[in-house]
Specification:
By secondary structure, the chain is of the alpha+beta class. It is 15% helix and 20% strand. A three-stranded antiparallel β-sheet has the order 1-2-3, with no helix packed on it. The relative contact order is 0.08. The mean pLDDT is 74. This is Si:dkey-245n4.2. InterPro entries: OST-beta_subunit (IPR052678), Ricin_B-like_lectins (IPR035992), Ricin_B_lectin (IPR000772). It comes from Myripristis murdjan.
Length: 194
């Protein structure tokens, strides 16, 4: 088993497929054959017990490693283990490592940026609100007006209409705040039935 100590995951044949496949990191399990590797001392290669293929470094530096048929003395398959436990491509100085999860890093950066931006906006709003002059109004006291004759509500003026206001006989007495509707036929009814 080849374990990444930092991430706590093990190197495995990706998705369990054999034949020229890719490798990935997965949860370590001692019973999975896709995570079992064998050291070949004559070629310094790491061979998958699941596929029989060897861990092969790419031609370019930042490409992923692959499984390919084992070739004796192939420079791209010769690995060494450093004193710190790092797998290094023999003679090249390239280490076998996992890519950082870019979405986690992006979320950490963006959330920190949003927090700072929100704090700045809050401080600017507090500062600008302190400079504003707030007008204080005197408390409102209604003026007493004489009641207009025929008005349905005391102390309020009735609108001018062609017909005199008539309350229907079934209508209860008019109360303050009640809205009355005068129909074309001259009848008056409340807007909301109580």
């Amino acid at each position: 088993m080849i374990r990444n100590k930092l991430l706590g995951k093990c190197l495995q044949v990706q998705d369990g497929h054999s034949g020229g496949g890719r490798v990935s990191l997965g949860e370590c399990s001692p019973h999975l054959s896709i995570q079992e590797w064998r050291w070949l001392p004559e070629s310094h290669a790491l061979s998958s017990l699941h596929t029989g293929e060897c861990l092969t470094a790419p031609a370019e530096q930042y490409e992923g490693v692959r499984l390919q048929p084992c070739i004796l003395r192939a420079g791209s398959q010769a690995w060494t283990c450093s004193k710190k436990g790092h797998l290094t491509l023999f003679g090249k100085g390239l280490h076998l490592s996992a890519r950082q999860e870019s979405t986690l890093i992006t979320m950490l950066v963006l959330s920190s940026l949003a927090l700072v931006l929100g704090t700045v906006i809050l401080i600017l709003n507090v500062y600008s609100n302190r400079k504003k002059v707030v007008c204080v109004l005197k408390s409102y006291t209604p003026r007493q007006e004489a009641s207009v004759p025929g008005s349905p509500v005391p102390n309020e003026r009735a609108p001018l209409t062609k017909h005199a206001m008539r309350l229907s006989h079934s209508s209860p007495t008019v109360q303050r705040g009640e809205i009355l509707i005068e129909w074309k036929d001259g009848t008056v009814t409340p807007l909301y039935e109580g």
